[in-house]
Structure formats: C-alpha cells, structure tokens
UniProtKB/TrEMBL annotation:
It comes from Trichoplusia ni. Belongs to the mitochondrion-specific ribosomal protein mL43 family. It is found in: Mitochondrion. Residues 37-110 form the Ribosomal protein/NADH dehydrogenase domain. GO terms for cellular component: mitochondrial large ribosomal subunit. InterPro entries: Ribosomal_mL43 (IPR039927), Ribosomal_mL43/mS25/NADH_DH (IPR007741), Thioredoxin-like_sf (IPR036249). The keyword Secreted does not apply. Its main location: mitochondrion. This is Large ribosomal subunit protein mL43.
Amino acid sequence: MSAKNMFLKPGFVRAPLQNGVGRYVCQLQRIVFKFCKSSGGSRGMRDFIEQDLVDFAKVNPGVVVYLKPRRHRSPVVVAEYLNGDRVWMSCHNKTHEEITKWIEVCRTQQGNNADTRLRKYQYTDHPSIQGPWTPFTFKDPELNTTVLPNTKFGANNRLPISATEQLRLMFEKQKLYEGDEIKTAE
C-alpha cells in the first residue's frame, strides 16, 4: 500500500441502489448557488441563474435548488448527493457555458469518490505480475489493421451450421424432390 492512501477514508465501490437496472435515480440531492449580486467574478453565475436555472429546476424536479446571494464573495456551487458526499466548486470568472457544463457534471455523477481509498473484498499476498485480463488479451494483432467484415476473422465461418439452417435446407430439398416427382407423373 502506498503512503498517500494512509489518510484517506476506506470505502467499497458500489452501484447505488443498482442504479440504472430498474429506473434511474438521480444521485444529486441538493445544489446551492452562492454568488455576489455586484461582483464581476460572479457574472457567469448570474447569467446562468437568469437564463438556465428555471429550466434546470423544471427538468430535474428531484433536485432541491438554493440561491444564496453573498456580498463581496467569490461564486461557489455546492452539490450534495444521496450518499452524503458534498462537492464544492469555485466558479470565479467562469463563463455561463462553463458553469452550465459543470452543473451537468454535478448532476450526472454520484458524488466525490476521489478522496476514498478503494477497498476490495478479495486480497492476495502475491498479485499477478501479468496484469488484468481483458477481452483483447489473446486477440490476433493482425485484427488491428484488417478491414472488416472479413471472412478470416468472422465468426460465421467457424461455427457449424445451425439447426434452423439444417431444417430450412431439408425443406428445400424436399420441395425440389416433390416437384420432380410431380413433373415425372404428368
């Protein structure tokens, strides 16, 4: 374990409430916009509040939005999530577009996991020196430069004929045989 992880709180990676399996639950619970009504550094924040805040609140009815005007202070956005995390972000001298993008980032993430030391349920004294397995570990390198679809790398030429295809071929042969028999009888 490296020394930088010694002072981080430990935690496990988990999908909150299996988010996305059934219905999507927005993890953003509350967002607070702190700004100055007269400061030049808060201009982008004031533009966002005037133009886009009402639409943001209509689209996201599960998110509580607070406006907190403060005199002679730098603009700040504080996002609070369902898991208890708080993300604090300074918006000093940011444009309206930049603030819109950062609000979208806050809306779509599930909190600040950067300050958590990730733990695993499994542990080994002798980790693999080969690295993790990926689906591309044992693929042919020629596949990188090949124009696809290619019969050499296609899965269709390696598989045996399916049962449905066998029945279709048998039916076509039977139709041809019955057709020849009818023609000879006439």
